[in-house]
Amino acid sequence: MGELCLSTPGGRTVKYSNIWLPALCGILSSYFTWIMVYLDSNVPGIQPPTPLSPKKYKEQSGHTFHLSYIFAIVVGLFVFFYMYFRGVPVQY
Fold first, then answer.
1. Helix H segments across 40-66?
2. Number of H helices, E strands in the chain
3. What is the pLDDT of residues 52-86, one digit of tens each?
4. For residue 52, which of 39, 41, 64, 40 has the smallest C-alpha distance?
5. Where are the domains positioned within the chain?
6. Which pTM value belongs to this model?
7. Does the keyword Membrane apply (predicted)?
């Protein structure tokens, strides 16, 4: 019965959920943290500049990549690795 379940598309989704679910949660938490850092800026996108800001704003601040945006990426990596090593799959 278990092998029959894994041959359906829904079964494959459940089988590989230990990879895609932590990845999805890591990406969403990075995105949410990035948006919070962006909106909490003095002038969003300019002070501090995002990595996607024009070069003139990066030159004004003297930094190419601010620590707060690195932190947003690190949060997503921590969420991914925590969920991956804890084994948080979808139950079918």
1. 55-61
2. 5, 0
3. 666 766 666 666 667 888 899 999 999 999 999 98
4. 64
5. 12-86
6. 0.71
7. yes
